[in-house]
Specification:
The protein is α+β, with helices and mostly antiparallel strands. The protein is built from 5 helices and 8 strands. The strands form 2 sheets. Strands 1-8-7-4-3-2 form a 6-stranded mixed sheet. Strands 5-6 form a two-stranded antiparallel ribbon. A hairpin with a 5-residue loop joins strand 5 and strand 6. The chain starts with a helix and ends with a strand.
Length: 175
């Protein structure tokens, strides 16, 4: 009974955040996906041919592209669900990282790759050569609700557009 109450509480929280239909649909998609062995995702593509106004984020944060070496030297990697192995593998594949930093602590990030990148369990996403693929985005719980993730994505978009890319492709699991 306690587990049911916890699940119901999480459902109510999600419903307040996204609405009842998306909250319920995501749970159905997750169960269906587990049952038949597929992932249900929502694919998003954004053309990079127009300027978008930068988002306001707290002034104490530094949003910028960061090298793998610098990323590995920061505090709090585990707190933002990053491992040194993932960062090193990403650097070997030539992927780029855009990070939100509070002093020498990482509080958010998004990874991008030209033409595609990793998904899960050895699956690789391949996109058109004129697109960047945005993946593995995260913001520490203490910093959520401050528009950090969208600001990082827009920073990555601006950088990609300046380098001649035409669109950004990303997706998120419906569940």
């Amino acid at each position: 009974m306690r587990r049911f109450r916890e699940r119901l509480s999480r459902l109510r929280i999600d419903a307040r955040r996204w609405g009842w239909l998306p909250a319920i649909t995501s749970r159905i998609a997750a169960r269906l996906g587990q049952f038949i062995g597929v992932s249900v995702v929502k694919v998003r593509e954004r053309r990079l041919d127009t300027d978008v106004s930068p988002l306001d984020v707290p002034g104490s944060l530094d949003l910028r592209e960061i090298s793998a070496e610098e990323l590995l030297s920061l505090q709090g990697l585990a707190e933002v669900e990053l491992t040194a192995e993932f960062v090193r593998d990403s650097a070997k594949r030539g992927e780029r990282v855009f990070a939100a930093l509070h002093g020498d602590r990482i509080v958010g990030y998004t990874f991008c790759a030209a033409g595609g990148g990793p998904h899960i369990d050895g699956i690789r996403v391949i996109t058109r050569p004129d697109s960047i693929y945005a993946f593995k985005s995260f913001v520490h719980a203490d910093y959520r609700g401050k528009r950090i993730s969208p600001a990082l994505i827009l920073l990555a978009d601006e950088t990609a557009r300046d380098e001649g890319y035409l669109s950004r492709i990303g997706f998120i699991a419906v569940s």
